[in-house]
Protein: Cytidyltransferase
Organism: Simplicispira suum
Amino acid sequence: MYDTAILIGRFQPFHQGHLALLRDALSVAQRVVVVLGSAHAARSPRNPFTWQERSDLILGAVEESERSRIHPLPVRDYYDEPVWAKAVTEKVHSLLGSTTAPSASESICLVGHFKDPSSGYLRSFPQWPLRALPRQGQIDATALRDAWLGGAVPSTLADALPANAVAFLEDFARTPAFSLLQQDWQALKDDKAAWASAPYPPTFVTVDALVQSRDQVLLIRRGHSPGKGLLALPGGFIDVHETLLQSCLRELAEETHCALPASALTAALREVRVFAHPARSQRGRTITHVHHFDLREQQPPAVLADDDAALAQWLPIADLAALEDQFFDDHFHILDSFLGLLARPTRTA
């Protein structure tokens, strides 16, 4: 018997396979820490539910007498596995009331199963013995989301879901948020259909502009699905005959009409960073080159939304951390990488 079992997942949605893993964790430990991944992210077809909603689904799927033994723990995506693993470890230690690694008398195990290569994160915690269980049936959260967003009645998914999850999906399908998710889901489906005849999965190359002036940054609200209404950096796909910088300046001009000539922006270019995490975009493998333009103490130039942008605006850097759940894909984490919006996990595993 362990003191603590740790179960890590996104649980989008929480299904019978997840419940079987949770029951195993409850059977071998006095308490179970359920790490809820992708916390604080905007709703999307891949992450339709908030961490609070998923926490309620998990607790509602077990007997009331067991709920006090389950401790939900939200952890954001960092698009950097070592940093993410440190964050999980640090938060688990904090939850268990320890400022350092738990004492030798504290016994901890990790519960999970290797579904596919995406489950490799389970190897990021060598300090915790792993109970690697076989797959619990053929239930897959991605297929469940696709069926639900494609219009399947939740009751037809009852074999794969706890009863409380069925009721939750039925209620959620009557909300405005569901309609927006369906629009995004259809847009992504159409994008993938357009590339279905390619001989191999395509890799997309994009550019984004991070324009900083004084203590503000230039952002847009996306005008189309996927991510309609979400905050994002101005940017888009490169054209065949453009350099990366030319593409970035073109996209910036098209989406914001930023009132600075290309020569002034080029003079303000400080750095270009590549962001290439495999899961950073729901459209498929997308590698972006973020150009950081720092106008320093210059007055923020006038902007006007156009093209793919519904709104272009300068926002104070100090306000961005509170807007994390309003950002498209990994754009909040791109800003964090340049501007240090979040405290970074520091404790080694």
